[in-house]
Amino acid sequence: MPLDYRLHSLLLLSFILPTLVNAIPHPQDWANNRRPRPDTNGVVVTPPTTTTVPEDGNVDVRQAVVDNDDDTTTPPASGAGKRGLAFNEASPSLESFTNSDITWVHNWHSQPGNAPSEFLFVPTLWSDKSPHSDNWDTLANGHPYLMSFNEPDIVAQANMAVGDAVSAYTKLMFPKRTGSVKIGAPSVCSGSGTNEAGIPMGTSWLRQFLEQCNDPNTCVADFVSGHWYGCPDGTCSVDDDVKSFQNYVDDVISVAEGREVWIPEFQRYGDPSQQKEFLDKVMPWLDASAVARYAYFMVRDGILTTDGRVNELGAAFAGV
């Protein structure tokens, strides 16, 4: 091999090896008094909140999900690798969360913005409507995980009937599923009953989606996602919210039937000390649970940051 060619190869490796070494892998509708939350453009908006696979001859898609597992992207069962950050364009820089227990991030969007490269970015197809679906076919490429429709069970969010969501998911999400790419069922809220459009909410919506999305050739969900928020204005005790949160997560785990479970959006209302008490109680439980990934709502001054830097609550969540 010519000397100049070997030098060129060594220089190329010097750039590639560091990258390889460092690579790692709303809430309930409270009587129409729901808290503000961000849309995908960083603007705050105010929204209006054990199944079995049918034994009707359909293929058991739970096996199809298992067949798609890839050890290179599956988070460990312990707390390591589970914690993530929810952020948007209005959030302070995430740089102060590096060198912490945070390993992944999401922003209800298909592009990472200014998220540090140390974090695994998980794109979201917020809904099947424009502009969210524009260029999704291209933007979704190159990511090991993809999340789908944001709270389709809430009118002011993705607002999708179960059947419509299954059709859109089959068209937009399933083609992205490969042996190394996992796709997630739509993220539901923690509500119950039906919303003002007559659409089921919470795990009832999720259960129906999984019952209909059960063809390994056209529609499969590798993981499921649930969002949870505590009593409005912190009117419940911390212990009451802890119990409510754990019950909801257990319900999602039950409906998931062996699929990975993500909680990419959750928050306890109240002052920072109460929120920290809540996190101190639920994070060890989450780390020991079947939940694969979770993210507290959210990177914003007054919640996880103050003056653009990690505050006490953010430090407690991120482990810094």
CA-CA gap between termini = 49 Å
**What's the shape?**
globular
The succession of helices and strands, N to C, reads HEEHEEEHEHEHEHEHEEEH
Strands side by side in the biggest sheet:
5-4-3-10-9-8-7-6
Largest sheet geometry: 8 strands, parallel
Could you say which structural class the secondary elements and strand pairing correspond to? alpha/beta
Rg over CA atoms, rounded to whole Å, is 20 Å
Number of H/I helices:
8
- What is the number of beta strands? 12
Stretches where pLDDT is under 50 for at least 5 consecutive residues are: 1-78
Q: Give the overall average pLDDT.
A: 82
Q: How much of the residues is beta strand, in percent?
A: 15-25%
The amount of helix comes to 25-40%
Characterize the structure shown.
The protein is α/β, with parallel strands linked by helices and 320 residues long. The protein has 8 helices and 12 strands. The longest helix is centred in the N-terminal third of the chain and has 20 residues, at 3-22.
